[in-house]
Amino acid sequence: MTITDTKSAARKAAFAARKSAFAAGQGQAAQLLADFLAPHRHRPLAGYMAMRTEIDPIAAMAAHAGPVGVPVILGPGQALKFREWTPGCAMIEGDFGAFIPKEGAWIDPEVLIVPLVGWDRRGFRLGYGGGFYDRTLEGLRAKRPTLAIGFAFAAQELPEVPIEATDQRLDAIITEQGIVTF
């Protein structure tokens, strides 16, 4: 079995777990995320617009005192860029159906809330397979310390995420059941 096959099987299991967890509700996850972000309130933050059964970080993003951006996909094989977002700003549909601000400045985040499909206790995440966040984190971390916070349901935890040399570790994971730092 190749690493691609292993990751595909892990994604399938994690998507099913996420769907069930989503139906049960987010619980205190957004408040835990906001509390975790509080010491970083003036640093540029990147969040995301939740899609389908992703856990939703909007409340924590709206509470952030510094600039907040959301990811914009420029094209396959490229790092993400982040367009400034504020509650109520005009949004349009971007690639893969994710909503992005219609206009706004580009921000260079120092703290990222990272969506994911699965995660493990080593700090690795399983994404959607495009490598966007791995490329983005690698580039940002080459410039300065960058905090990557996975945001997910506890049910998305996997025994071990299959990894490759290009996979970037998270610094923390926040779920409705608590905070794990790596």
UniProtKB/TrEMBL annotation:
Catalytic reaction equation(s): (6S)-5-formyl-5,6,7,8-tetrahydrofolate + ATP = (6R)-5,10-methenyltetrahydrofolate + ADP + phosphate
Keyword Oxidoreductase: no
InterPro entries in the record: FTHF_cligase, FTHF_cligase-like_sf, NagB/RpiA_transferase-like
Keyword terms: ATP-binding, Ligase, Magnesium, Metal-binding, Nucleotide-binding
GO molecular function, one term: 5-formyltetrahydrofolate cyclo-ligase activity
Xref: Gene3D superfamilies: NagB/RpiA/CoA transferase-like
Cofactor annotation: Mg(2+)
Documented EC number(s): 6.3.3.2
Signal peptide: none
Entry's family note: Belongs to the 5-formyltetrahydrofolate cyclo-ligase family.
NCBIfam families according to UniProt: MTHFS_bact
Protein name in UniProt: 5-formyltetrahydrofolate cyclo-ligase
Natural source organism: Gemmobacter denitrificans
